[in-house]
Automatic annotation (TrEMBL):
It comes from Candidatus Eisenbergiella pullistercoris. Residues 14-291 form the Aromatic amino acid beta-eliminating lyase/threonine aldolase domain. Keywords: Pyridoxal phosphate. GO terms for molecular function: lyase activity. Belongs to the threonine aldolase family. Its cofactor is pyridoxal 5'-phosphate. One of its GO terms (biological process) is amino acid metabolic process. This is Low specificity L-threonine aldolase. Pfam families: Beta_elim_lyase (PF01212). InterPro entries: ArAA_b-elim_lyase/Thr_aldolase, PyrdxlP-dep_Trfase, PyrdxlP-dep_Trfase_major, PyrdxlP-dep_Trfase_small. The keyword Oxidoreductase does not apply.
Length: 348
């Protein structure tokens, strides 16, 4: 069985493992206060072009989302997200477990707009009973989205401006940020993201690390006391240097973008083959997630040899599924899948 259902099937990039082995017997202080975390944070600040950023390392995406949102919001406040947003659909109510409601909005290929945020805030303010409803205080987006799509520079800038006009924080989930930054149609870079967002994170778990996300904060209000929240939410790893070491390896010599570009290239190759064989895409994206629409009979045949994720029902006989490439995907496995698709021919 060849697995394409997610981008964290394998362990870590060899250079990450080498760095972990090289430093394995070093003695350092704990809880992320070691020199490796300090150096990794400095590399991230340099890549973002902003020395004032606060950088914190957490173990995983759900933990990062829950901790950031709980730290930012007061008890009566909620977070705006797309209906398909990870915090709304894939985290078992982690945000709600901290006492904060997710205010879900309709999406367009996984994205929400500044106009939607403005409308929701206006409706809340103009409601005569506004104090009886949850106050919006943060906007959560993912880039890439759950559909592998990307925000344009204009869309992110407009969302940032809408948040600032309405007194909201803008939080970008970057669990797959590398695959977004490396995509052929990407318009964003780390300095631009850091200038638009109050907080975002650089994902490691899905982009070459064994585990770990680097939370980056520009807003001074959010920086204050954040380590208290990390500890309270169970995110302060005693051997915190393991996170710093991994991000040192990823951020040195352009490795993070190098391995992301490779994953995107293989996804492009696979995407072109699906379309050539008569299987259209549910959404257009150039990142490492692709969503072909296929007959159920074909999916049943493929499922005996390949792992992939079901996405949604399209009609009575067709479903959209997700195939993911990653930093570790083998080109020969992509070629094998393409060969099997081509044997099937154009099937409707």
């Amino acid at each position: 069985m060849i697995l394409f259902q997610c981008d964290y099937n394998e362990g870590a990039h060899p250079r990450v493992m080498e760095k972990l082995m090289e430093t394995n017997l070093e003695q350092t202080v704990g809880y992320g206060e070691d020199e490796h975390c300090a150096h990794a944070a400095e590399l991230i600040r340099k890549a973002c072009g902003n020395e004032s950023l606060a950088v914190h390392f957490l173990v995983g995406g759900t933990q990062a989302n829950m901790t950031v949102i709980a730290a930012a919001l007061r008890p009566h406040q909620g977070v705006i997200a797309a209906q398909t947003g990870h915090i709304n659909c894939h985290e078992t109510g982690a945000v709600e477990s901290t006492g904060h409601k997710v205010l879900a909005l309709p999406h367009k290929d996984g994205k929400i707009s500044a106009a939607q945020v403005e409308r929701l805030c206006r409706e809340h303010r103009e409601d005569a009973s506004f104090e009886h409803t949850v106050q919006p205080k943060m906007v959560y987006i993912s880039n890439p989205t759950e559909y592998g799509t990307l925000y344009t520079a204009k869309e992110l800038e407009e969302l940032s401006a809408a948040c600032r006009r309405n007194g909201l924080y803008l939080f970008l989930d970057g669990a797959r940020l590398g695959y977004g930054l490396a995509a052929a149609d990407n318009e964003l870079d780390l300095p631009f993201i850091a200038s638009c967002c109050d907080v975002f994170y650089i994902g490691g778990t899905k982009v070459g690390a064994l585990f770990g996300e680097a939370v980056v904060m520009s807003n001074d209000e959010l920086k204050r006391d954040f380590r208290y929240f990390i500890k309270q939410k169970g995110g302060m790893l005693a051997k915190g240097r393991l996170l710093g070491v991994q991000f040192e390896a990823l951020m040195e010599d352009g490795l993070y973008l190098e391995i992301s570009r490779r994953a995107d290239r293989l996804a492009d190759k696979l995407r072109e083959a699906f379309v050539r064989c008569g299987f259209p895409m549910l959404v257009e994206s150039r990142t490492n997630q692709i969503f072909p629409v296929m007959p159920d009979a074909v999916l049943k045949e493929l499922s005996g040899r390949y792992g992939f994720s079901w996405q949604e029902r399209v009609d009575d006989t067709h479903s959209a599924v997700r195939f993911c490439t990653s930093w570790a995907t083998r080109e020969e496995n992509v070629d094998r899948l393409i060969a099997d698709l081509e044997k099937m021919g154009p099937i409707r």
